[in-house]
Amino acid sequence: MLNFTITKRKLSSFIALLAFLQAGLWYGGLADLIPVALLNQWNRLTLIFSVILAFLCIARKREINIATTLIVLFKVILILSTYINGRTVDEVEFTRFLCIVLSLEYFEDELDSIVTVLMLVCELMVYYNLVTLSVGPDLYGAYYTALGYDNAAPPYLMAAYLVAICFALEKRKYIRTIILIVAIHATLLITMVGTGLVAVFFVDILLIWNLIKSIELTLIKTYVINIIFTFLVVVCRIQNLFSFIIVDMLGKDLTFTGRTRDWDLAFELIPQRLLLGYGSMNQATEKIVLGDAFTHNGLLELVFRGGIIALFIFTMAIYFISKVERFVSEESKNKSRFLLCVLCGYWIMSVTEVVFEGVVFYCALMLYFHYMKFLSIREKI
């Protein structure tokens, strides 16, 4: 007779699989593999677990961590803005987001098992995508991959990169990590998405540099650098000083394929709804409002959708997530710097793409946060 017991480790692995598999695979062409009825049941199950996890977090700690609270509040502000602007909210996406954030919050002391599950999810996601690209680049239509529109795929690949590094740091199984990272690079080289390629090679350089000589990085430092760099490119248009490289050597234009026009229009529209923005919207609606599917800048899109209130809450969340770095040993700080190198890839992509409006960035960000807390907990044992 089978003897099966439910342990916290098994439960954490199951809920992680439920939440992260849904966030990673229920997107783009991969969703076509799942029957609609099963998809709907999975959504309902995710909602149920989100509610249960919220109660468990409160019951265990009396309060949810302030960084987690701020991240959830940030999403709630976007929902509020959407309702105020008379549009419907994507409840399924918010449920996925909530389940992921709360599962990491509640099961942070079992994070080693969650990282193992995440590695399996990322391998499935990246390898399936790479195989479909190799079999037929236009299998899902021009400019589309199994992870969706080609410009939407790099944030998922960057999350897989972070999970791979986290898996190597925690499990010391380097072969699987190396194979997954090679597959990520191969995917980007096949699709030739410029922003993704620049970001991933920038991460490569940072990782090699940090391996040779530890870089004094903190999350808040990288965020401030991102704000400054975004200001220089989006507002000051510093790229015009390097036309000899961008135009003459790389054969690109200084508008970043029309993105400067999107930025200028966003600057005109944002002051009209400065506090709460225009809310979340689908690409068709945003084309009507903005003239394009996105503002093509992470921070600009954040303010466009949620106003300066959303930007303030997002910034405070980054600050409180960064605070956990102070409470770990030097050895753990060295581990955190490898993960920060990968998170810098999101900052790079955010200059010309929207990376803060989906679920995947918050998967990576909160995984970093709770991995640091997990290391801190382990040090005290």
Describe the fold and architecture:
The structure is a single chain. The chain is globular, with a radius of gyration of 20 Å. Helix 3 runs antiparallel to helix 13, helix 5 (111-135) runs parallel beside helix 7 (174-191) and helix 9 (219-235) runs antiparallel to helix 13. The protein is 71% helix and 1% strand. It has helices spanning 8-25, 36-61, 66-84, 91-106, 111-135, 153-171, 174-191, 194-212, 219-235, 243-249, 259-269, 283-290, 298-323, 330-350, 360-380, and strands spanning 144-145, 148-149. With 381 residues, the chain is mainly alpha-helical. It has a two-stranded antiparallel sheet with strand order 1-2. It is built from 15 helices and two strands. It starts with 7 loop residues before the first helix and ends with a helix.
Descriptors:
381 residues; globular; 2 strands; 15 helices; two-stranded antiparallel ribbon; mainly alpha
Query: What would you call the shape?
Result: globular
Q: What share of residues are in beta strands?
A: under 5%
Mean pLDDT equals 77
Within the largest sheet, what's the order of strands?
Answer: 1-2
What percent of residues adopt helix (DSSP H or I)?
A: over 70%
The first-to-last residue Cα distance is 37 Å
Structural class: mainly alpha
CA radius of gyration: 20 Å
Task: Name the poorly predicted regions.
Answer: 24-29
β-strand number: 2
Count of helical regions: 15
Q: The biggest beta sheet, please?
A: 2 strands, antiparallel
Give the SSE order as H and E letters.
HHHHHEEHHHHHHHHHH
